[in-house]
Amino acid sequence: MKQLNIGVLVGSLRKESFNKKTARALMANAPDHLNFEVIEIGDLAHYSEDAEANVPVAWAAFREKIKSKDAFLFVTPEYNRSVPSVLKNALDVASRPWGHNLWDGKPAGIVSVSIGAIGGFGANHHLRQSLVFLNVATMPQPEAYIGNAASLFDDEGHVINDHTKEILVNYMQAYTAWVEKHVL
User: Fold this and answer.
1) Which of 21, 136, 148, 182 has its CA 20 to 30 A from that of 99?
2) Distance between CA atoms of 98 and 107, rounded to whole angstroms?
3) How many CA atoms, within 13 angstroms, populate the side-chain half-sphere of residue 148?
4) Which residues, at least 6 apart from 142, have a Cβ–Cβ distance to it below 8 Å?
């Protein structure tokens, strides 16, 4: 099986983020031919077209990582019924200036994670809107909203809820098929 390079973007910067824990659990449930790299987004300066004349080093490195990936997995919390600004900024940095969209045509999956009961539904769908515009082939089903995240992990960050484990396993099976369909 061909090795596929997957970029993982986590919308939470918090050290003990439930989103980071979920991302690790998702990666652990993937087949060996998916090579994951968590791409850090916290050090990206806010996008401004003015900076294109002297591109920040962090932008250049981030853009190279995005360019090198076959597909993406987004794991995000919900802030005010949307995605965190750091994640939206990452989308902008790699899709601008106009005509230089590095996300274009690549497949992706979205998992939203929240301490609330609805599991980041708003962020999940808001991110989908942006990805549609960026021409990212976003997996439509199954959708994944992980709610009540504060009760799903042990002190080491492992998923302790059997139903959630099953959701993550099933999601990664579907995600793998989605990526293979669009890349291979």
Assistant:
1) 182
2) 20
3) 7
4) 170, 171, 174
Predicted structure pTM score: 0.97
Q: Are strands 107-113 and 144-146 parallel, antiparallel or unpaired?
A: parallel
Q: What is the pLDDT of residues 72-123, one digit of tens each?
A: 999 999 999 999 999 999 999 999 999 999 999 999 999 999 999 999 999 9
Quote the tokens at residue 87: 């994640």
Tokens matching residue 17: 């983020």
Q: How far apart are CA 25 and CA 130, in angstroms?
A: 25
For the residues of the chain, what is the DSSP string, one character each? ---EEEEEEES---TT-HHHHHHHHHHHTS-TTEEEEE---TTPPPP-GGGGGG--HHHHHHHHHHHH-SEEEEEE--BTTB--HHHHHHHHHTT-STT--TTTT-EEEEEEE-SSTTTTHHHHHHHHHHHHHTT-EE--SS-EEE--GGGSB-TTS-B--HHHHHHHHHHHHHHHHHHHHHH-
Euclidean distance between CA atoms 40 and 90, whole angstroms: 9
Neighbour tally for 120: CB within 10 Å: 31
Q: What is the largest CA-CA distance in the chain?
A: 51
Alpha-carbon distance of 3 to 91, in angstroms, equals 25
> Which superfamily is assigned to 7-183 in CATH?
Flavodoxin domain (3.40.50.360)
